[in-house]
Amino acid sequence: MRLHLLALNPTDSVTEGYLPAAARLGLAVTLLTDHPDAHRRAYARHVADGGEPLPELDIIACDVRDFREVIGRICELGRPDAVFTNSDHLQTQAALAADYLGLPGKDWKAAFNAKNKAQLRRALAGSGLDTVRSLELRPDEDPASLAESDLPFPCVVKPREGVASEDVVLVRDAAELAERCREIRARRPGTALVVEEYLDGELHTLETLGDGTTLHPYAAFRTHLSPLPYFIEERLDLLPEPPRPHSKQVLAQLRALGIGFGVCHTEYVVQGDRARLIEVNYRSIGDQCDLVLAPLLDIPLFEHILRTHLGEPLPAELGARTDGRVRMEYVCAERGGVLKAAPGASDTERDGVRLVYRPLRELGEDHPHYRTNRDYLGVLRATGTDQDRIDRAVAEFLAARRWEIVS
Question: Is the Cβ–Cβ distance between 246 and 275 less than 8 Å?
Answer without folding.
Answer: yes
